[in-house]
Amino acid sequence: MARPLPPAVLVLAGHDPTSGAGLVADSEAVAANGGWALTVPTALTVQNGDNVRRVVPVDSAIMQETVDTLGDMPVAAIKIGLLADAATLDAAARIVRRFPGVPVVIDPVLKAGGGAELSTPDLCQRFVDNLIGQADILTPNRHELARLTPELPDDNDTERAVALLSAGCQGVLVTATDDPLPSSNDATVTHTLHTPDNARQWQWPRLAAAYHGSGCTLAAALATRLAAGDTLTVACEQAQHFAWQSLSHGYRPAHGQRLPNRFFAYR
Amino acid sequence: MARPLPPAVLVLAGHDPTSGAGLVADSEAVAANGGWALTVPTALTVQNGDNVRRVVPVDSAIMQETVDTLGDMPVAAIKIGLLADAATLDAAARIVRRFPGVPVVIDPVLKAGGGAELSTPDLCQRFVDNLIGQADILTPNRHELARLTPELPDDNDTERAVALLSAGCQGVLVTATDDPLPSSNDATVTHTLHTPDNARQWQWPRLAAAYHGSGCTLAAALATRLAAGDTLTVACEQAQHFAWQSLSHGYRPAHGQRLPNRFFAYR
Fold first, then answer.
1. Using N-to-C axis directions, what is the helix angle for A22-32 and A232-248, rounded to 10°?
2. Share of chain A above pLDDT 90, in %
3. What global pTM score does this model have?
4. What is the model's pLDDT at position A171?
5. Strand order of the sheet with strand A188-195?
6. Arithmetic mean of pLDDT, A231-240
7. Residue B41 is nearest to which of A44, A53, A248, comparing CB atoms?
8. What is the structure's pLDDT at B185?
9. Which residues pair with A46 in a beta bridge?
10. Which of A5, A55, A95, A247 to substitute to test the interface with B, most B CBs within 10 Å?
């Protein structure tokens, strides 16, 4: 009765004890999309539904040793989330280089939903210089997009995305839920996939609440779709659909942000 | 459309990058049984499908701070797995005392499936002295049962279980998959629930393969059933059923032990 292992997604992510975001959330999104997560913690975080209180980066040597020891477990895609210091960022870059040809999704986690800063200008620059060039696709929200391109003063998302494409990544999916435009009274949210020769947009009904872990959910689902062989555009569309469904079926704890229900198809 | 959060299970466990066992496995078992996992890492491990190479206990102060920060998120059950040193064991004991009346499932993870030792005689003794008294139910396999009661020389599981009940826990579910008796040519495996006034047995068809994470799967499912309000006996039966199904629908990686499929009901 035993079946072969589903496509494996190597997840490098921070651990969030609420399971709303981070490594556990990623593994849920991978499982719900038919994959198997191999998870490498990049940091432990102390947080609740309101905000992040403390971030403790994992020893980068342990990250490296963990991946070395996984050995020949087949990796069909890589998803990278929180990298909270230079050492873990550099370790992630080294790890990705071990898997040539494997699609890489990088979610630049720079700020917690509750407002806590998870990065610095120097670390953002290091991210652009050392890691972005290895990404098949980057999934910033508008705030993160601006943080990664501080040299561009205006509010032109396209110009910012083109700058990141110039840094070497193959695609930038900019989500616009987090940072409403003046026109956000609109009942829709528009996400935009920028590629070197195109831009493609999707509109989704705006959800009223604030959610914890929406970015992780999107990026991990996207990596799993790429692991299964979808094209970039199809994977982006499927992942947005999955994330929107997870949020719209989400849970409302007694306090704090709502939590995604990544198993909405089952419960 | 938002719903209340499902019953939350506080999981204290080691992290296993393969997702076969440990914190991610626990969160899967909790989710598949209708709960929501709050996860506190007790250790990071470096391992693959064959064996555990290295165990790095988490700073016990971070464990404590993590639980303090979760604050008023409601905890309906607690599941404890790997405690790899005295400091994290003592932190787990302190954390449990913060939740009086909440059912506590303790899986004594003392040895990796591949054979690596994860405990010492001193740590086993500390486990009995400081933690067992706070357990509603303990889920050792036969090897672990023997390790926790080294003063009892013979092969009498009942006597060993009674010794642990005397140490203060309310129930001991002894699983017999790991360490076959001479009669293990039998096509069945017998698991036994010992309580102060009774012993109850269940028989399950023996599965031919070796699995990584069967104990975590059982204990986390059991905690989730208790969180949902099941009685101890019903929860034990349901958890065994869930674990058996997860294993029988398991995955066969290219190398190493098979991996449970905790979402067998969906895929």
1. 110
2. 84
3. 0.96
4. 97
5. A52-57, A36-47, A8-15, A77-80, A104-106, A137-138, A172-174, A188-195, A198-205
6. 98
7. A44
8. 63
9. A54
10. A5
CB pairs under 8 A between A and B: 160
| Cα B232 from Cα B245, distance rounded (Å) | 20
Contact: B251, A2; criterion CB under 8 Å = yes
Residue with tokens 């020389």: B153
Dump pLDDT digits (tens) for A136-194: 999 999 999 999 999 997 789 999 999 999 999 999 999 998 765 545 567 899 999 99
Phi, psi of A89, deg, nearest 5: -65, -45
Domain ranges of chain A: 8-251
Given an 8 Å threshold on Cβ–Cβ distance, is A24 in contact with B19? no
Inter-residue contact B164 to B151 (CB < 8 Å): no
Among chain A residues, the shortest Cα distance to B245 is held by: A1
Count the neighbouring beta carbons within 10 Å of the beta carbon of residue B145: 24
Could you tell me which residues are beta bridge partners of residue A190?
A: A203
Min Cα separation B229/chain A (Å): 18
Return the residue in B54, B65, B73, B88 with the most chain A beta carbons within 10 A, the one to mutate for interface testing. B73
Q: Which two tokens stand for residue B267?
A: 């895929």
CB-CB: which of A34, A250, A267 is closest to B267?
A34
Chain B closest-CA separation from residue A243 CA (Å): 15
The first and second tokens of residue A86, run together, are 């230079």
Long-range Cβ contacts of B59-63 (<8 Å, 24+ apart):
B59/A56, B60/B87, B60/B88, B60/B90, B60/B91, B61/B91, B62/A44, B62/A46, B62/A54, B62/A56, B63/B12, B63/B88, B63/B91, B63/B92, B63/B95
Task: Place domain A8-251 in its CATH homologous superfamily.
Answer: Ribokinase (3.40.1190.20)
Residues of chain B with pLDDT under 70: 1, 179-185
Indicate the DSSP class of residue B117: B
Other beta carbons less than 10 A from residue A224's beta carbon: 33
A239 closest CA partner among A198, A185, A202, A199? A202
Contact across the interface for A73 and B24, Cβ inside 8 Å: no
| Residue from A26, A52, A67, A73 whose CB has the most chain B CBs within 10 Å, to mutate | A73
The distance of A94 to chain B (nearest Cα, Å) reads 18
| Average pLDDT of chain A to the nearest whole number | 93
Closest CA to A192 of A157, A165, A148: A157
Residue A80 carries which side chain, given as an amino acid letter?
I
| Shortest Cα distance, chain B CAs vs residue A22, angstroms | 11
Per residue in A2-45, pLDDT (tens digit) is 789 999 999 999 999 999 999 999 999 999 999 999 999 999 99
Question: B135 to chain A nearest CA, in Å?
Answer: 22
Contact yes or no for A217/A137 (Cβ under 8 A): no
List the structure tokens of B1: 């459309």
**Residue A179 has what pLDDT?**
61
**A2, A24, A251 member nearest B37 (Cβ):** A24
Residues of A in contact with B23 (CB under 8 A): 24
